[in-house]
Amino acid sequence: MARKKSSEQSSAALTFSHAVRQCVDSGKVEFGANTGVKRALSGKAKLVLLASNCPDEVKDDVVRFCKLSGVPTAVFEGTSVELGTVVGKPFPVSVLTVYDVGNSNIMEYAKQ
After folding, report:
1. Residues 82, 66, 28, 111: is their CA dihedral positive or negative?
2. If 0-12 CB within 10 Å is exposed, 13-18 middle and 19+ buried, where does residue 91 land?
3. What pairing do the DSSP bridges indicate for beta strands 47-51 and 95-100?
4. Is 51 helix (H, G, I), strand (E, B) or coil?
5. Span 2-109: which CATH code?
6. pTM
7. Residue ranges of the domains in the chain?
8. Angle, nearest 10°, between helix axes 33-42 and 56-69?
């Protein structure tokens, strides 16, 4: 059974990664912690995606501001380097701000 759980978790992570990539390709996004904090505070974003190893002070600010403005957040279970690879960038991405989801189903993974 343990292997089946691992396989299901791997499949879910792959599906989420695919949704993130599809959002970047067909929607409108911005990268960066400073942008994420500003857009979360203003409420202009539809979703803010955080890498699992995002610095605690940035994560706390983004989550707090998202709750205040009603913007949902999601956590990418990989590191910022892995998130950068998923979105096709040659650098680590700790915060991804989504303005338009495009053809993706990434909002299914969002939580407030």
Report:
1. positive
2. exposed
3. antiparallel
4. strand
5. 3.30.1330.30
6. 0.85
7. 2-109
8. 20
Of 17, 80, 20, nearest to 47 (Cα)? 20
Average pLDDT value over all residues in the chain: 87
Can you tell me which residue has the tokens 């803010």? Answer: 48
Structure tokens at 54: 């995002």
Q: How many CB atoms lie within 10 A of CB 39?
A: 24
39: its two tokens = 């857009």
- Please tell me what DSSP assigns to residue 90: S
**Separation between Cα atoms, residue 102 and residue 104, nearest integer Å:** 6
| pLDDT tens string 45-100 | 999 999 999 999 999 999 999 999 999 999 999 999 999 999 999 999 999 999 99
Rounded CA-CA distance 38/42 in Å is: 6
Phi, psi of 63 (to 5 degrees): -65, -40
Q: Is residue 112 over pLDDT 50? A: no
